[in-house]
Amino acid sequence: STMFLVGLSGGIASGKSTVMAVLRELGCAVIDADLIAREVVQPHSKAHQQILRYFGTEILLENGEINREALGNIIFSQPEKRRLLNSITHPQILKEMLKQILKYFVLGYRYVILDIPLLFETPGLTKFMRYTVLVYCDPPTQRARLMRRNGLDADAADARISSQIPLEEKLQWATHVINNSGDRESTRRQVLRLHARLEDSLDFLWARLAAGAAVAGFGGLVFLLLRHLIS
After folding, report:
1. Does residue 122 sit in the same domain as residue 23?
2. pLDDT, tens only, 141-198
3. Could you tell me the CA-to-CA distances from 150 to 71, 91, 103, 157 in Å, in that order?
4. Which of 23, 94, 140, 208 is least crowded, fewest Cβ atoms below 10 Å from its Cβ?
5. Number of helices (H) and strands (E), helices first, in the chain?
């Protein structure tokens, strides 16, 4: 049997968590990159030690955990520090994601949904995805939601949104779009349609396998995993 990967992404306050909740409810195998990113920097981890070495103890909370807000402020304004942090955390995040993908593969899941905030910003990742899903929201709605959710004024909200690639631009890269500009019910209907499509596309798998694309994608991931586990 074979397996394919579905990458899911959005923008700040575009409603990705709503979509993820419905997919989980439908019994999909879901891997949350943000959650993994928080786990790989827990105290006593390799990444935690390296971050301390480079960023100093002032980014720690009382309980020894990393103060994400303090670290976020540093890397928000200093691209070279952001690159440094990524070089510490990304290999660890990738290793954990691959372990989870392998777990679902062994359990017999036919596809896995990867929730990756910076999916479209990371060109190397999209080539492993059979489909990419963008959770879209029109800019005025996105801004209003962010202001409401984070208690921000318009300028602060705009600064956060403009630090990301605009959702409008990401539209052209996604194979599937969930438009979350309307109410929850409309979003839910779209997610159900997407789920039906993912389930259906299994039937075409063998036809595609003749072309070898799916095997190459999954084989490449297994190769990556082995390389990371060995290193």
Report:
1. yes
2. 999 999 999 999 999 999 989 989 999 999 999 999 999 999 999 999 999 999 999 9
3. 18, 30, 35, 9
4. 140
5. 12, 5
pLDDT in tens, 43-59: 999 999 999 999 999 99
Query: Which domain range does residue 97 map to?
Result: 34-108
Q: Within this chain, do residues 87 and 58 fall inside the same structural domain, yes or no?
A: yes
Q: How many CB atoms lie within 10 A of CB 158?
A: 15
Tokens representing 125 are 């990742």
Residue 89 shares a structural domain with residue 189: no
Question: Whole-angstrom Cα distance, residue 185 to residue 179?
Answer: 11
Residue 174: partners with Cβ closer than 8 Å, 6 or more residues away = 120, 132, 133, 134
If asked whether residues 137 and 88 sit together in one domain, one would say no
Number of domains in the chain: 3
Alpha helices (runs of H) in 107-151, residue ranges in sequence order:
123-126, 139-150
Global pTM value: 0.81
**Taking Cα atoms as reference points, which of 16, 11, 14, 20 lies closest to residue 195?**
20
